[in-house]
Amino acid sequence: MITDKCKLVNNNDERGNYVVSTNEIKVGELLFSEESFSSIPLEFHNKQYCFLCCKQSEIIDDKNTTTEEQTTKTTTKDINNKPIQCKFGCNMWFCSEECSNDMTHQLECSFITKFIESSVKNECDVSTCLLALRIIIKNKIQSEKYQETVGKLSNQKEKFLETNKSFIEKYENNFQQVFDQLKQENSDPSLLAIFNKDEFIELVCSIYVNSFAGLSNDFNRIPISNGYFYKPALLNHSCEPNIFFTVKDLKLEMRACKKIEKDQEIFDSYVDLLLPTIERQKILFNSKNFICKCLRCSDSTEGERYISSIYCFHCNDGVEFISPEVFYNTDTKRLEENWKCSNTTGTCKFNEKEQNQRNKDNELEVILSDIKEFKEFINGEDLLLSNVNSSTADQEMPIIENILKRLLRYERDILSKLNLNHQCWLLFHLKLSKTFEKLSLVYNNFDYLIQSIQHYKEMTRIVESILKDSTSGELVDCYCHLGRINEKYLLSLIKQRNQFIQLKLQNKNKEDVDIEKLNVDIKNLLKFINHCYLNSYNHSVLVYGNNHSKSIQLNEMVLKSNLKSTTTIPNSTTSS
Ligand SMILES: C[S@@+](CC[C@H](N)C(=O)[O-])C[C@H]1O[C@@H](n2cnc3c(N)ncnc32)[C@H](O)[C@@H]1O
C-alpha cells in the first residue's frame, strides 16, 4: 500500500511498476500529499524564490506598480519575509534565516557557481544539475529517508544509454570539468569525496524522468521549480489522466480529476495536454524514454479532439478530415505521422493513394509547411506586445496593426483549412485575445475589449473540448480570465450608462439611448461573469482543494459578482 487509497503493482513489462486504486475515488478527492526530498527553483538568481524551499515571496518593486498577477500572489506573511542573501559565497536568495543556514546548502554552496557556469557551457540543464547536487548531499545527511523513498525509484540510466547516449556523455563531461577544476583549486578533499560521477549521472537520468514542475501560484502558471518526490513518481503516464497534480513550495498534491473505479490504474500526465499527439509523443520519447499507447495517442483524431486535423482537400465537403496517426519508425528511429482521411465510403481520392504517397502528398506538404510558419510567427511576437504602453503606443501601433493584418491573413489562408479545434486555432485565439486586451487597455477602447472576449471564449471552448470530461487547472485559469475580461467590459458599460444618465438629466442627450436595455445588458453581463467565476471556483476546489489560495480568492470573486447578493447594479466607482 502506498496510501489508504492506492497500492503499487510490481510489473516487468516496458511500462514498469504502476499504481492502482484500492477503492472507488471521487473527483476532487486527495490521493497524495508529499513533501519533496529536494527541490530547486528554476529562476535561481531571482530573489522572489527561496533557493532552498522554492517559496515565492512578494517583491514590492521600486515603481510601486501592481499588476493583476502580482496582486493575486500577495499574502501578508510573504510581505513580512524579506529575502536574505547567502552569506557563504554563492549569492543565492532565501526566504528566511532558517533556509539560508540550512546544512545542505552550506555543503553545496561552494559548488554552485561552478556547476552553473559549466552546465551553461556544456548545454546541460542547470536546474537538473543543481538538483542532482543537492540530492547527493541530502542523501548523506538523511540517508535513511533517502533509502526508504526516492532511493527506491527504478534506475533510468540504462534506458538513456540505449536511446540517447550523447545525453549521458554531455552530463559526464560537465561533472568531470567541475571536479577537475575544484581539485586544481585544492578544494576540501573530504567535501569532494561526497560526490561520484555514476551517482550524479543516475540522478540526472532519474530527475529527467521522475521530477515534477511546480507552477507559479498566479493565473499564468509558469514553471518555477523542479522537485524530486517518491510516491508521485511511481505513477505512469496517460494523455487522458485521472489525476491532476499541483506543487506549492515543496509540497505536491494529487487529486482525482475523474472518477476512478476500484482497481483501476492511476495515471498522471507528464506533458501539456493541450499539445497535439506528435508533440506530446516527442517530449515523452526524448525525455521519458517511452512511446505512449493511450487511447488518445492511438487514435488519429485524438479521441475526436481533432487538434491536428485538416479539412480533406479531396472530399472538400467540410465534413471529412485528414488526420495523422503517430508511430515509431524502427528504420529511421524517429516518430513519424501517417495521414489518412476520415471518409470511409471509399470515395476519397486521398485515401486511394498508398500510405507513402499520402504522406508525401503535395497539397498536404504545403499545408504542413504553412502551419509550421504560422506557429513560428505566433511564438515570435510576445515580447513586442508586452512592451506596449500608452506612451509608446503611437510608435508601436503600426507594428501591431501589421501583426493583426498578418494574423487575419493567416486566418484566411491557413486556419480556414483546419479543424476548429486545431492547435493553430487555439494559439490564434489566445494571441488575438491578448493583443486586443492590450489594445483596449492602451486606447481605452470598447470594441477591442469585445473582440478580446470573443477570442478568449472560443479559446476556452477549444480547451474544454480537449480536456473533455476531465477537470483541470487550465479550466480554472480559462474561466477566471474570461470573468476578468468581462468584468473590464462591465465597468465600461456601467460608465457609458452613467454618462447617458448624466446627459439625460442635463437634457443634453441628443441620442435616443435605451437606458433600460443597457441595464438589462449590464445585468446579463454580471450573470455571465458570475457564471465564469463559479465555473473557475468549482474546478479550483476539485483540482487544488478548498483551502488553496486560488479557491479562496475565486470564492470571493463569486460572491462579489453574485446578483442576488448585489441589491443594486454596481456603479462604476464601487464595483471592481
Ligand atoms: C515516473 S516513472 C513511472 C513508474 C515506472 N513505471 C517505474 O516502474 O518506475 C516513468 C517511467 O515509467 C514508464 N512509463 C510511464 N508511463 C508509461 C506509459 N504510458 N507507457 C510506457 N511506459 C511508461 C517509462 O519508462 C517512464 O520513463
Give a concise summary.
The protein has helices at 68-73, 76-80, 97-100, 103-121, 126-141, 143-148, 157-163, 165-184, 189-192, 197-210, 277-288, 295-298, 349-352, 355-359, 362-379, 382-387, 393-413, 423-443, 446-467, 473-505, 515-544, 549-560, and strands at residues 6-9, 18-21, 30-35, 38-41, 84-85, 93-94, 212-215, 223-228, 236-237, 243-248, 251-256, 267-268, 310-311, 321-329, 334-341. It has 576 residues and is mainly alpha-helical.
Task: Please tag this protein with its features.
SET domain-containing protein; 576 residues; 50% helix; binds S-adenosylmethionine; disordered C terminus; SET_dom_sf; SET_dom; 3-stranded antiparallel β-sheet; mainly alpha; SET_SmydA-8
Topology:
Elements (H helix, E strand, L loop, with lengths): L5 E4 L8 E4 L8 E6 L2 E4 L26 H6 L2 H5 L3 E2 L7 E2 L2 H4 L2 H19 L4 H16 L1 H6 L8 H7 L1 H20 L4 H4 L4 H14 L1 E4 L7 E6 L7 E2 L5 E6 L2 E6 L10 E2 L8 H12 L6 H4 L11 E2 L9 E9 L4 E8 L7 H4 L2 H5 L2 H18 L2 H6 L5 H21 L9 H21 L2 H22 L5 H33 L9 H30 L4 H12 L16
Parallel strand pairs: 9-12
Antiparallel strand pairs: 1-2, 3-11, 4-8, 5-6, 7-8, 10-11, 13-14, 14-15
The chain binds S-adenosylmethionine (SAM).
Pfam families: SET (PF00856)
Protein name: SET domain-containing protein
InterPro entries: SET_dom, SET_dom_sf, SET_SmydA-8
**Approximately how much beta-strand content do the residues carry?**
5-15%
Cofactors, ions, other ligands = S-adenosylmethionine
The shape is globular
Largest sheet: 3 strands, antiparallel
Mean pLDDT: 90
Number of strands: 15
Helix share bin? 40-55%
Low-confidence stretches: 60-79, 572-576
Largest sheet strand order? 3-11-10
Distance between the termini: 49 Å
Structural category is mainly alpha
